[in-house]
Amino acid sequence: MNSASFRSGVAVLLLGLFSVPSVQADPNLGFSAFAGQDLTPLADGKVLQARGGLIDFERGVTAQSLYFIEAPPQVVEDKLATWNPASHSELQVWMHKPLPPRPTANDFAAIADLPDNSSVNNMIDATFSYKPGSDSLQLDKGEQQGVVAAQGQGKSKATTAAIWSQILAGRIANYLSGTSAGMKYESSSALILPLAEARSLLRSDPKVYNEFHPLFASTPMFNQHSATPFQLYYECFDIENTACFGTGALYHEVSPQTILHGDLEYFVSSGIYTSLELEQLWPATIGGKTGTLVWRADMVSTANVAYLHGTERLASGMLMLQDVKQAVDAFRAEFH
pLDDT digits over 18-77, tens only? Predict the structure, then answer.
C-alpha cells in the first residue's frame, strides 16, 4: 500500500476558470463523496474524510479523503511517486524500496537489514513455522514448497531474506507478464486471486470505477499488460504486530487539467489480500493559497471484513479513516 499501511488514493483541485468565494477552482468532484462541499476549510489544513459504507463486495472496505497542499500538482505527483513512508515511524512501515523495471532476487537485498523488532521477529517465526496449506502466509503451492525446503537451512535473517527475495521476484515477474491466473493465494480454506479482488474493489464504487478504469484497463488487473508501470516497489509493514511483505505498481495519467495516480499493491504476504490507493490532483487556489487539491481513495480487501456486518463493518471503516488520516498528515509534512 505502497503498502502496510493499508496502502491507499489522492485528489487535487483545478485552478479556476471562474471564482467562488475564497475558492478559485473547478474540480470535478461529482464522482466522489465530497461533491458540493465547501472547500474553504482545506486551506487551513483540514482533511475531509468519508467512509465507503456497506459496499457489495463482502471482503472490501473503502474510504475517501480530500485535502490541499501548497505545491503545484506535478510536484505533488512526483512526491507521491518517490515518497518513502518508512521515514515516518508512526506509520510502522519498516521498509519501502523502489525497484528497476525488471527486478531479480538480487534487488531485494534490503530484506536482510530489516529492524530487529517484535513485528519483524514474528514474521520470521511465521516463515519458519509455516506448514503447506496454512493461511498464515498467502502463497501458492509452488511457493509453499520453496518455503518448507528452505526451512531446513535454519532460522536466520539471511535465510528469511533469501526466501522472500525469491517469492517477491517471482510475483513481480508473473505480474509483468500478465499471467494473472498464476497469481493466487492457495490454502486449505480458500483460493484467493488478488487481482480479481482488486477488480472487485474498484467496481464496488461505480463512480470511482468510471473515473479510474481507464488508468487500469491495460494492466494485469484487467488481464492486460500493455501499460507499463512508471514505478515498481516492494515494502515491509506491520499488520497486528506481524511484518508483512508487499509488492506494488504505480500508474499515472497526466493532462493539463488533472493528474490521475494509482497504486496497486497486488501481493501481500499476510494480513490483507490486496489494496488500491487512488489519487486525483487538480491545481487550485483556496483561501488565497495556490496549490493542489488532492482527492484520495483507499480500498482494501481482507478476510476479516467478510465476517463483519452492519455497524461492526462501518466501525472497521472508521478505523481505516484514522490510519489514512495519519498517512495523509505524514505525506503533507514532507512539504513543510
Answer: 333 455 556 889 999 999 999 999 999 999 999 875 567 888 889 999 999 999 999 999
What CA–CA distance (Å, rounded) separates 60 from 137?
Answer: 20
Percent share of the chain, pLDDT over 90: 77
* Exposure class string for 252-288: b at 16+ Cβ within 10 A, else e: beeeeebbbbbbbbbbbbbbbbbbbbbbbbbbbbbee
Query: Which amino acid type is present at position 175?
Result: Y
DSSP per position, 134-195 = -SSS---HHHHHHHHHHHTT-S-HHHHHHHHHHHHHHHHHHHHHT-GGG--EE-SS-EE-HH
Q: Which three cell numbers stand for residue 213?
A: 478504469
Domains in the chain: ranges and CATH: 15-112+193-333 (3.30.530.20)
Q: Could you tell me if 7 and 95 are in contact, meaning their C-beta atoms sit under 8 angstroms apart? A: no
Q: CB within 8 A of 162, min separation 6: which ones? A: 105, 150
Closest CA to 335 of 83, 97, 90, 11: 83
Mean pLDDT of all residues belonging to the chain: 88
Are the C-beta atoms of 168 and 153 separated by less than 8 Å? no
Query: Which one is predicted more confidently, 211 or 318?
Result: 211
Joined together, the cell numbers standing for residue 295 give 482527492
Distance CA 249, CA 2 (A): 8
Mean pLDDT of 175-199: 87
